[in-house]
């Protein structure tokens, strides 16, 4: 003889069973609904001597041609936090080094690469000054050890010597190594914990230099007409920024002629190729130095355990 349960008790059991099945799905749905989405990385001004980003609080973006276009560091034009404010300051610094700092070509190219760290989108979203890999700072120090620097009167950081500075001295008289040079110039430095450690989350590692070189190659495929138009635009912008005395000097020198602009165009193309070679050489040298220091470390380890 079977005993039938009241209908209400059957319904209660059925509801409990359904709730037990549905509750994990409900919890998962609620977690998905209320869990914060991964925030998009946004530009964070670097402080110190670096001009603030106009794109502060917004993601890195592509820069369009116009008054806000990059005057330097154009390899980052497709995605950057920079505009003309950052690149003009960097351009002035690099010009000083090239014209009055008595620097080698390699020094100028590597210093330009160092100054352009502020326009790397990965650097732009990090808080604090641009974080440079110690190995890259060492590379810059080796190339620029005999160049002339001075302490900037406004920012109190080490900068290439200009025509108005009273006290100028070679880099080796100010600092003794690459880390000190980068820090004195207003950058942060990431020092590896042990020789041969893989450099990550810092600007100037082999991986980041390879990435910059690849971007440079992909950006270099532009029509010759557009390249010449860009050169003319750059020249006119420089003329606007020059004081009257310098404008007269350039005009007398014939640099405003079309032939002069064509020479500038050829020099610009040659300069870009030299920069690309410098980036690739720096990456290779850092890779070989890393391999050498790693092998030396392992050798020491074997001797200690023998």
Automatic annotation (TrEMBL):
UniProt cross-references to Pfam families, sorted A to Z: Folate_rec
Signal peptide limits: 1-39
Keywords of this entry: Disulfide bond, Membrane, Signal, Transmembrane, Transmembrane helix
Compositionally biased spans, kind Basic residues: 297-306
Cited InterPro entries: Folate-binding_rcpt-like, Folate_rcpt-like
Stretches assigned to the Folate receptor-like domain: 62-185
Transmembrane segments: 248-265
Protein name per the record: Uncharacterized protein LOC116214727
Species for this entry: Punica granatum (Pomegranate)
């Amino acid at each position: 003889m079977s005993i039938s349960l009241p209908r209400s008790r059957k319904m209660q059991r059925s509801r409990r069973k359904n709730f037990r099945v549905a509750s994990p799905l409900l919890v998962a749905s609620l977690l998905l609904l209320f869990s914060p989405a991964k925030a998009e990385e946004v530009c964070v001004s670097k402080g110190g001597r670096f001009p603030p980003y106009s794109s502060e609080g917004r993601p890195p973006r592509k820069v369009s041609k116009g008054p806000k276009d990059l005057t330097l560091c154009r390899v980052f034009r497709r995605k950057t936090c920079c505009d003309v404010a950052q690149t003009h300051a960097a351009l002035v610094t690099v010009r000083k080094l090239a014209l009055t700092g008595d620097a080698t070509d390699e020094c100028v190219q590597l210093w330009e690469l160092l100054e352009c760290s502020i326009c790397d989108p990965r650097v732009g979203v990090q808080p604090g000054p641009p974080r440079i890999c110690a190995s890259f700072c060492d590379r810059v120090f080796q190339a620029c050890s005999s160049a002339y620097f001075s302490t900037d009167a406004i920012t109190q950081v080490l900068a290439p010597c200009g025509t108005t500075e009273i006290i100028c001295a070679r880099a080796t008289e100010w600092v003794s190594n690459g880390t000190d040079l980068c820090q004195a110039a207003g950058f942060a430095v990431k020092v590896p914990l042990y020789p041969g450690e893989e450099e990550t989350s810092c600007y100037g590692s082999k991986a980041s230099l390879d990435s910059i070189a690849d971007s440079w190659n992909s950006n270099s495929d532009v029509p010759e007409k557009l390249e010449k138009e860009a050169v003319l635009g750059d020249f006119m912008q420089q003329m606007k920024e020059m004081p009257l005395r310098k404008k007269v000097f350039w005009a007398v020198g014939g640099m405003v002629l079309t032939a002069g602009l064509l020479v500038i165009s050829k020099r610009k193309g040659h300069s870009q190729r030299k920069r690309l070679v410098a980036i690739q050489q720096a990456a290779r040298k850092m890779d070989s130095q890393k391999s050498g220091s790693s092998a030396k470390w392992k050798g020491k380890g074997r001797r200690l355990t023998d």
